[in-house]
Write a structure and sequence with these properties.
alpha/beta; seven-stranded parallel beta sheet; Rossmann fold
């Protein structure tokens, strides 16, 4: 049994990773700013910021591994609060890496993002596709990746990097497109589509993403490697996603509402039009195979919203 610290451990992805690790018999410590209801009396939960180096070192002490998920999130938030995003995502990551070295951590898995690819001429997007960050958030994730390489070169700190592609699930905040669509439809409101709705994404259910992280953490051949973690089986346009949500929720009288892209959280220059991952590397090296299809996952999210009081 290993002891693993999860930064951002009570968050959307962190909670799923914690559940996956515990199911495999491991001990977890959770570091997060937010105390989840189920963590209120948890002796392995630590409240605080990754910007506090003393706290980070204290919490990491006694751990074998680290999964670093804590970050400033959201394109709109990180564009309007640029300095905060840079500070949290870069200095916070440095604090984690420094503590990993001091406390002799065996390995760290760093949560990066498909945002670093920006717009690509070729899809599906492979790990060796050229990086083209077009948002402040994407730049901070790319800087984080470079820090991991540097800490390996200087201190032999083993690492793996996972780049997430549109992870979703029942606990995700409504700020993201899929739960936003679901919330609107379940409240008998039209799902709002920015632009023409032809933007394509591939959605990955959070339990599958968590399995990918855990596989990267413990696989002996994953050190120093980057993996796309997503679900490549069902690419879908935003228009099609809105229509699917309407149909699965049984709200067929509703139609999507289209709003100009300039009124969204991205300008035309910063919009990513085609984001489809290649996960062949993860399939081959990690035996990573996402199991939850889009209809099944979308129904889980719809059911959760409909059951709310």
């Amino acid at each position: 049994m290993a002891c693993i610290l999860i930064t951002g451990g009570t968050g959307f992805i962190g909670s799923a990773v914690s559940k996956e690790l515990i199911s495999k018999g491991h001990k977890v410590k959770l570091l997060d700013l937010v105390i989840g209801k189920k963590n209120e009396n948890d002796s392995n939960f630590y409240s605080g910021s990754i910007l506090d180096p003393y706290l980070v070192s204290t919490v990491i002490r006694g751990c074998d591994y680290v999964v670093h998920l804590a970050a400033a999130l959201g394109v709109r938030r990180t564009e309007y609060r640029r300095l905060e995003c840079l500070y949290i995502n870069i200095q916070g990551t440095v604090n984690i890496l420094e503590a990993c070295v001091k406390e002799n951590i065996k390995k760290i898995v760093f949560a990066s993002s498909s945002e670093i690819y920006g717009n690509q001429n070729k899809v599906p997007i492979r790990e060796d596709s050229p990086v083209n960050p077009i948002s402040n958030y994407a730049i901070t994730k790319l800087v984080g990746e470079e820090y991991l390489r540097a800490y390996y070169d200087n201190y032999q700190l083993s690492y793996s990097i996972v780049r997430f592609f549109n992870v979703y699930g029942v606990e995700q905040r409504d700020a993201f497109v899929l739960p936003k669509f679901v919330r609107s439809v379940c409240e008998n409101k039209p799902p709002v589509i920015y632009g023409d709705g032809k933007q394509v994404r591939s959605f990955c259910y959070v339990s599958d993403a968590a399995k990918g992280i855990v596989a990267a953490l413990f696989n002996k051949n994953s050190n120093g490697e980057i993996y796309n973690i997503g679900n490549d089986s069902e690419p879908i346009s935003m228009r099609e996603l809105a229509e699917k949500t309407i149909n699965l929720a049984g709200k067929k009288s509703i139609s999507p509402q289209f709003i100009p892209l300039e009124d969204s959280d991205r300008s035309k220059e910063r919009e990513v039009y085609n984001r489809i991952p290649s996960i062949e590397k993860a399939k081959k090296s990690l035996q990573y195979n996402p199991e939850v299809n889009l209809d099944e996952g979308l129904c889980k999210v719809i059911d959760k919203v409909l059951q709310e009081p």
